[in-house]
Amino acid sequence: MIRAVLFDLDGTLADTAPDLGGALNRLLSENGRPAVPLESARRLASSGARGLLLAGFGITPEHREYAALQVRFLDLYAQAVCVDTCLFPQMESLLARIESLGLPWGIVTNKASRFTLPLVAALGLTNRAACVVCGDTTAHLKPAPDSLLHAARVIGVAAEQCLYVGDDLRDIQAARAAHMPVLAATYGYLGNGEQPDTWGADALIASPIEVLNFLA
């Protein structure tokens, strides 16, 4: 029986790609490079700075310029975390329905609290979420189960009775390690050419409202 629902943030709960892509394009402009189309940035947005710097500059963390570009990218993003970001279509209806059922819901993300907490506040969700677990809340990021297990403890529900929803392979791996049922959100960012049907989720959902089918 499901007694709580937990969501990944970027690409699952909220469409953050416009503001992440905006920060990337400001960084590209500073470096005399052409802007990246939003759809190109969207595909890699769940990977955060690593994915976006790959999309914009074609570099990985091993590159000698990566660290400095990452710092600047994060600073630019922090200045505008919720300008064009919004909840995915149907997400507000889903959250309202979950609340009407008397179930707590929360957020578990690898995004650092520096960005997550202002973003959640700007979306008007701070007082509604039963927990907001960020990338620096626990010692290990997803795909480790630490953050999901921490969320279950905070809301007082056994991990096996929490449903997790995410759009990245790491989300499914973390949920499996935490022994949580898990849904893969195919409406999310999904990485670059990845196949969510191979991730091992309990089911795929094409829209947020489909989560309700798993709460009976």
Description:
The chain is α/β, with parallel strands linked by helices and 216 residues long. It folds into two domains: 4-15 and 85-214, 3-Layer(aba) Sandwich (Rossmann fold), CATH 3.40.50.1000; 17-78, no CATH class. The protein contains eight helices and eight strands. It has helices at 17-30, 38-44, 48-57, 66-78, 91-100, 113-122, 146-155, 169-178, and strands at residues 4-7, 14-15, 86-87, 105-108, 131-133, 162-166, 182-185, 203-205. The protein has a six-stranded parallel beta sheet with strand order 5-4-1-6-7-8, with helices on both faces. Helix 1 packs across helix 3 and helix 1 packs across helix 4 (66-78). The longest helix has 14 residues, at 17-30. It is globular, with a radius of gyration of 17 Å. The mean pLDDT is 96.
Estimated radius of gyration: 17 Å
Number of strands: 8
The CATH class label of the largest domain is Alpha Beta
- The percent range for strand residues is 5-15%
Strand line-up across the major sheet: 5-4-1-6-7-8
- Which secondary-structure class do the elements indicate? alpha/beta
**Number of folding domains?**
2
- What is the percent of helical residues? 25-40%
Largest sheet: 6 strands, parallel
Just name the CATH architecture of the largest domain: 3-Layer(aba) Sandwich
Low-confidence stretches: none
What is the element string, with H for helices and E for strands? EEHHHHEHEHEHEHEE
Shape call:
globular
Query: What does the average pLDDT come to?
Result: 96
CATH T-level topology of the largest domain: Rossmann fold
- The CATH superfamily label of the largest domain reads HAD superfamily/HAD-like
